[in-house]
Amino acid sequence: MTGEKWRPARNAAVLIAALLLFWQLLYAFAGEAAIKPPLATFRYTATLITTDAFWVHLSESMRAFAAALAIAVAAGLTIGFWLGFHKLSGEVCEPMLVALYSIPKITLYPILLLAFGLGMPAKIAFGAIHGIIPVALFTINAVRNVRPILIKTGRVHGLGATEMARIILFPAALPEIFTGLRVGFSLTLIGTLLGEMFAAQRGLGYLLMTAIGLHNVDLIMAVTLLLFVFAAAASGTLLAVDRRLHART
Amino acid sequence: MTRVTVYRVLVIAAAVLLLEGLCLAGIIDRLTMPPPHRILRDLAVILASGSQNAAIVKTLTNASIALALALVAGITSAVVLHGYRPVRETLEPLFATYYAVPIFAFYPLLIVIMGLGDAPQIAIGFMLGVVAVIVNTLNGLDRVPRVLRKSARIGRLNAIETALIVTLPHAAPYVLTGAKLAVAYSFIGVIGAEFIMSRGGMGYEISFAYTNFDNATMYPLILLILLVSIALNAALSRWEKALLKRRGQ
Amino acid sequence: MLQAGLPHVSLHAVTKVFPAANGAETVHALGPIDLDLYQGEFFAVVGPSGCGKSTLLELIAGLAPTTSGSVDFEGRRIAAEIPDGIGVVFQEDACFPWLSVEANVAFGLRKVALAAAEKRKRVRDVLDLMGLGDRARAYPAQLSGGMRQRVCIARTLVRQPRLILLDEPFGALDQQTRLLMGEEVLRLWRQTGATVFLITHALDEAAMLADRIAVMSARPGRLIDVIETKWPRERDSRIVEHAGFGAITARLWKSLREESLKTLRRPVAPA
Question: Which residue of A164, B146, C150, C167 sits 20 to 30 Å from the alpha carbon of C215, by its own alpha carbon?
Answer without folding.
Answer: C150
